[in-house]
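Notebook entry, structure prediction.
Reason for the run: the old model in the group folder had no record of what sequence produced it. Starting over properly, with the input documented here first.
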Amino acid sequence: MRITRKFTQEGVSPYADIDFRKSSCVIKNPDGSVVFEMNDIDVPGTWSQVASDVLAQKYFRKAGVPVALKPVKEKDVPSWLWRQTPDIAKLEKMPKEGRYISETSATQVFDRLAGTWTYWGWKGGYFDGESDAQAFFDEMRYQLSHQMGAPNSPQWFNTGLHWAYGIDGPAQGHSYVDFKTGELTKSASAYEHPQPHACFIQSVSDDLVNEGGIMDLWTREARLFKFGSGTGSNFSNVRGEGETLSGGGRSSGLMSFLKIGDRAAGAIKSGGTTRRAAKMVVVDIDHPDIENYIDWKVVEEQKVAALVAGSKLAEKHLTEVLAACTNWDGAADSEDRFLPRANPQLKEAVLAARAVMIPDSYINKIIEFARQGFTEINFKTYDTDWDSEAYLTVSGQNSNNSVRVSNGFLQAVLDNGDWELIRRTDGKVDKTIPARELWDKVGEAAWACADPGIQYDTTINEWHTCPNSGRINASNPCSEYMFLDDTACNLASMNLMNFRSDDGGVDIAAYEHAVRLWTVVLEISVLMAQFPSDRIAELSYRYRTLGLGYANIGGLLMSMGIPYDSDEGRGIGAALTAIMCGVSYATSAEMASELGAFPGYADNADEMLRVMRNHRRAAHGEQEGYEGLTINPVPLVAADSPYADLPVAARAAWDKALELGEKHGYRNAQTTVIAPTGTIGLVMDCDTTGIEPDFALVKFKKLAGGGYFKIINRTVPVALATLGYTERQIRDIEKYAVGHGTLVGSPTITHDDLKAKGFNDDAITKIEGALANAFDIKFVFNKYTFGEEYCVKQLGLDAKAINSMNFDMLAALGFDKKQIELANTYVCGAMTLEQAPHMRDEDLPVFDCANPCGRIGKRYLSAESHIRMMAAAQPFISGAISKTINMPNNASIQDCKDAYMLSWRLCLKANALYRDGSKLSQPLNSALVEEDDYADQSSSAKVAAVSEQIVEKIIERVVQGERRSLPSRRKGYTQKATVGGHKVYLRTGEYEDGKIGEIFIDMHKEGAAFRSLMNNFAIAVSIGLQYGVPLEEYVEAFTFTRFEPSGMVSGNDAIKMATSILDYMFRELAISYLGRNDLAHVQPSDILPDTVGKGVAEGGLGKEAKAEDRAIETIRKVASSGFVRRNLYVVDGGAPVEEHVTTLKATGTDHGHSHDHGQHAATATATISSTTTVTSSETAILNASEEVMSASDAKMDRIREARMKGYEGDGCPDCGNFTLVRNGTCLKCDSCGGTTGCS
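New structure, fully documented this time:
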């Protein structure tokens, strides 16, 4: 093939116009712990920090890259294309530890990818001459470095390791077809033939253990998951429940095997790979078990809800039963305390437990526990986190589920006819049900839990290019690749934003040139690839399917000033898709003219050309005349496109594609899909993925040193300028969305207003300093910004009130809700353009996103707008489109069914709905926004918790100038442990407020010198603590230090391994006083009787909450906060009371009892007994984990904040950050690039 240059010049480096910068890439968990860190890497200066981080973390080869290389000469390959191998002679002269390193420059990655493609392209005869190969090499490196396009993740992982560095390893059971001989060959090594394919479809037969059967599928899936790929299968061949077996028994049915496969996928997902397992399960609508399959995830979600609610109710009521046994007013040794008839408080607790269906056996078990002297129970509770144990307990959480529906079924729904479910063993009718009843089930399930999706079987197979070779039964996990069973597809996507022309349109010549080159790349990738099974290797060679697509159409349309939901937007989307698919097929035909059509073409030529003619008719805007289609596609309407050259180019591309195909056939059975472009979308700095619209107008740009700052979506200013707004107006609109970061100029709560309330200049300076990066103004106005004394004496606030979790300082100072909201919008930004200054209402549709933006945003794209954009593009896609149809929480079941039906009528191949809040693990977007109401006490309590957490961390870093003396009689705790066989005693001393002020260290049976050194080290640390040096500074300095003694730790319930005595000590102190459970090896939830909720009715927290606060403060004056590890909590019962009395009693000899003053004993009260003479089994303390409660509150804050930012609200399973965005039918993480898909 002849390769022309469009982006580069001969003899000039493709990187010549790029300024590279040194970057340090850090990806952190929400708790600040580092997930990944790499310093001094070279990346293009124009790349964002997120793109650089993802490249370094996901795609850099971390080990095995030789420092010294030498070429391997090949007779028929140009010398500049010779592959490299380690230069052993040079390496042996180097220090052993320095011989092999990681990749450290982006150019290394670009070079190995493009070089490998060029190398195999040369060997396969794809280039007319050496100059064409050099042009191809340069053009691809240019596109990669300029973020114009990117291949799917497995290419970045695997391609070029052998060619560029000589990295190899033992074969992994892969196969390939030799392109010279056409013979199936077993791979002799791991990397000589890379594994670049992301998407697989695998068959499964109605057989238990033989090859191609059910159990064999789990092994084949595991091999794909291990290498970062995804797979889908249609399980409709598996017989239904109750069908006969050859041995005379009855089958356990499809669902039993699906649950096994789901468990297998879940185990591999968590096995340390770089990606989660991605899996698609497809079942035909006529399968005997289809009803159970449709309801599968609905029922599993109900199980999660039951686990969560039931565990918390059981924990609450069983704790109350135990408390009633231990906290009673009678004689301590009386047996009556365990008899409900004699103990009124116990009777009340038992009846309350029975009322919520707690089993009598469990109630009796707790009473027996109490009879044996136990005063605490550890009843595990569950929550609705997606990756929590509740979800891990149930099945169906590791795959996307879809139902295959035929036109016959949908017509039966419309006609209100019956539908027959067919047995798999004999083909006879198993059951007849009304079609609408089954359709209702599908709609209800999609509404309830966002599964199953729909695949339109008839439409898919009517557009099938190779029907004579078999039906299309399934898809990959994201639903964009649909072809024969046991085939594979490798993907690549182009960033449309980087093909904008100077006039704001599209540089069609550059776009077509890039499509041609990427089609060649994907075709070469089929030639060079190895595959996980013989069958997939054979069929991939025979049909050579490709998956070229694009990303960022949402960003492109916004930058053009064109609404996503508009005829113009759909016209541009259709034209760009038609150009891409037409040019790609034309390129495939061009390659066929030189290398031959794909081997399966001859059997399917007539059908494939029929499909090509239908594509061309749609490109020419024809309404009728389509061949072999039941439903006509949505044709390209040239008049809708504001850029007239786009539809002209689309028609020309398809004219050429059909003309060349009729002459030469095609090299590939399929060429295009629209993938979700998750991780690679981040590498290309795409604002939007695939065909998706934007998810938020204000983004949070990552800084190299960590942290984020708010920035307007980069397409917004471009769009505003296109729409005719002036520079000043654009700045004002940006400030409205992002915020001013200051109260200067605020419409409410001005400096004068604050001075009138008692704030002085110094306090206002503190406010201004904190406002710049505040997400919410309430984070700034609290006692930590000004100090408690200032709040009480200067501002006249109540001392007790400002310590309340419910306290809202601005409201307490007399500002009303509207004033606070206006100031909040001015300072922190609205994160939407709705109600922005200068903004014209008619321009707002340009900035509509998938979900409402910010606190006050109301606008969002309708489900129909998503479907119609897909329908505009689908006629020009070989495969299908991975896309989420977003629906609001108030969408009805009928809305879901209507969306599915509209998709069918518009000739889509698949549809995946997502109704906001349809997953238990995800709080409602709408509810979270409403929860931010300042009048809502529970919301302000959560905000106060976060502000306390954030500000406290900053305050503790201020070193005090004077030494703070410890009280003469002080509390603390002693921890005995053994580190590497050496006994260590750690003793702490605390101030009245529970903060640590001194430590003592003693070692058992050690030499005097070592013990003296440790003793003096403890004194030095203690003096530092008393002078205000934060404990966390010591923790950062001394954890992970390494010297003897070290090793296994016994005697400590949280720490199991230490690298030194100092590492152990400061882990212990960090866990106990800083809540740094990231330094623990055993989490609090595993060793404490934790509960997330208190089990009281919401809303009535007044006197009870205040009494509880007083109780906790009193306890903290006498109990060591380090000893309880911040887990001390006063448990309050659920009955409403007029007088709430918490009695605290501590003696050296007596049991502490609760005295009920005029109330029936429904309230569990806390008592403290001296631990010096009373054993733990006798004390009546009830501990619940405050740590977990605060973590839960903090997590809810992060979820709420994430949803306001436009994210989904789930935590990333890879890095834990709440930056997941919906990405086709999958999710991707904007922090680490992790994705639930396979692209």
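Summary: Residues 270-275, 923-960, 1087-1108, 1126-1191 have pLDDT under 50 and may be disordered.
The old model has been moved to the deprecated folder.
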